C-alpha cells in the first residue's frame, strides 16, 4: 500500500509539473499583451518584431503591433500597419478605432506628445463616431490637468475638442474661470505671434534674411502696431534648419494668470 501511495504521488507530481510546464510555454502574442498591460511597450514591440512568417498574418498581431508602434512614437508606421490590413473595411475600422484610442490614452499623459495624441484621436473618431463621447471625456479630463501646470497643453486640448464641440468653451468658463482665462490669454498670445510671423516675413523680404533677434525687429519698426500682452517676454532665435523660433514666455504679471514657466513657440517660416 505504501509503495502504491508513493507511486501515485509521483504520478500526480509529474502531472502537475507537466501542466505547469505547458502553462509556461508563452505564446509571443500573450507575452506582448502582458508587457503592454505592464506599460512596457518597448519590450512588447521587441517581442512582436521577432515574430515572422505566417504568424504575422494575424489580426491580433496587427492590432498589438500598431498599438506599440503608436506609443513608441512611430506614428507613420502605426498607420501603415493599419492600412496594410484594410482600413477601409468597416469591421477593421471599429477594431482599429480602439487601438487608436488606447494608444492616445497612453500618449496624452506626456505633454510634449499632445499633437500625436490628437492625431490619433481624430482618426479614431473618423473610424468609429461612437467614440466621440469617450474622446471628449478623455480630452476634457487631461485638459484640466494641464491647465494646472506650466505649458499650453490645456489650451491645445481644448482647441482640439472645440472643433467638434462648440459648447466646450462655455463649459470651461462655467467650470473654472481661472482655466478659461489661461485658455483665452494663450489664444491671444498665439494670435500675436502669428501676426509677428507676418512682420518677420516683411523683414526677410526687405533684408533677404531673418532678423538676428527680436530686438532687431523692434528697432527697425517692424513691430509697429503689434500689441504684446503685458506679462510676456518675446524672443526670436535662429533654428538649425535655417528658419527661426519665436517664443513668448509667461511672467508673473500676465493678465490671464498663465502659469510662470509657460513658453509658447511658433516656428518659421
What is the fold-level CATH name, i.e. the topology of the largest domain?
Serine Threonine Protein Phosphatase 5, Tetratricopeptide repeat
Overall number of strands: 3
Number of domains: 2
Main beta-sheet strand count, sense and barrel state: 3 strands, antiparallel
> Structural class, judged by helices and strands?
mainly alpha
Q: Any idea of the CATH class of the largest domain?
A: Mainly Alpha
Overall residue-averaged pLDDT value: 88
The number of helical runs is 12
Q: Report the β-strand fraction as a percent range.
A: 5-15%
Main sheet: which strands, in order across?
1-2-3
- Bulk shape: elongated
Helix-residue proportion: 55-70%
> Runs with pLDDT <50, length 5+?
1-25
Written as H for each helix and E for each strand, in order along the chain, the element string is: HHHHHHHHHHHHEEE
Task: Describe the 3D structure.
This protein folds into 2 domains: 25-150, Serine Threonine Protein Phosphatase 5, Tetratricopeptide repeat, CATH 1.25.40; 192-268, no CATH class. Strands 1-2-3 form a 3-stranded antiparallel sheet, with helices on one face. β1 and β2 form a beta hairpin. Helices cover 62% and strands 7% of the residues. It is mainly alpha-helical and 269 residues long. It has 12 helices and 3 strands, in the order ααααααααααααβββ. Residues 1-25 have low confidence and may be disordered. The N and C termini lie far apart (91 Å). It has helices spanning 2-23, 28-37, 41-49, 59-71, 75-84, 90-107, 114-127, 132-147, 153-162, 168-175, 177-207, 214-219, and strands at residues 232-238, 244-250, 263-268.
Amino acid at each position: 500500500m505504501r509503495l502504491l501511495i508513493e507511486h501515485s504521488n509521483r504520478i500526480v507530481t509529474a502531472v502537475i509539473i507537466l501542466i505547469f510546464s505547458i502553462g509556461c510555454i508563452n505564446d509571443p502574442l500573450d507575452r506582448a499583451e502582458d508587457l503592454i498591460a505592464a506599460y512596457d511597450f518597448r519590450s512588447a514591440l521587441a517581442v512582436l518584431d521577432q515574430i515572422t512568417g505566417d504568424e504575422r498574418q494575424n489580426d491580433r498581431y496587427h492590432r498589438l503591433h500598431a498599438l506599440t508602434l503608436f506609443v513608441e512614437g512611430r506614428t507613420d508606421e502605426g498607420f501603415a500597419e493599419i492600412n496594410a490590413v484594410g482600413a477601409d473595411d468597416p469591421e477593421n475600422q471599429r477594431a482599429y478605432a480602439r487601438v487608436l484610442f488606447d494608444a492616445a490614452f497612453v500618449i496624452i499623459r506626456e505633454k510634449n506628445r499632445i499633437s500625436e495624441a490628437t492625431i490619433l484621436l481624430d482618426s479614431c473618431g473618423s473610424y468609429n463616431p461612437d467614440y466621440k463621447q469617450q474622446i471628449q471625456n478623455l480630452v476634457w479630463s487631461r485638459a484640466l490637468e494641464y491647465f494646472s501646470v506650466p505649458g499650453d497643453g490645456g489650451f491645445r486640448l481644448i482647441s482640439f475638442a472645440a472643433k467638434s464641440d462648440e459648447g466646450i468653451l462655455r463649459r470651461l468658463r462655467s467650470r473654472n474661470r481661472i482655466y478659461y482665462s489661461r485658455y483665452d490669454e494663450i489664444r491671444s498670445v498665439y494670435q500675436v505671434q502669428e501676426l509677428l510671423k507676418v512682420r518677420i516675413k516683411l523683414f526677410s523680404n526687405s533684408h533677404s534674411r531673418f532678423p538676428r533677434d527680436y530686438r532687431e525687429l523692434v528697432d527697425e519698426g517692424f513691430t509697429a502696431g503689434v500689441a504684446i500682452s503685458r506679462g510676456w517676454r518675446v524672443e526670436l532665435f535662429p533654428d538649425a534648419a535655417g528658419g527661426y523660433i519665436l517664443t513668448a514666455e509667461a511672467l508673473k504679471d500676465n493678465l490671464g494668470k498663465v502659469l510662470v514657466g509657460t513658453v509658447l513657440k511658433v516656428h518659421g517660416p
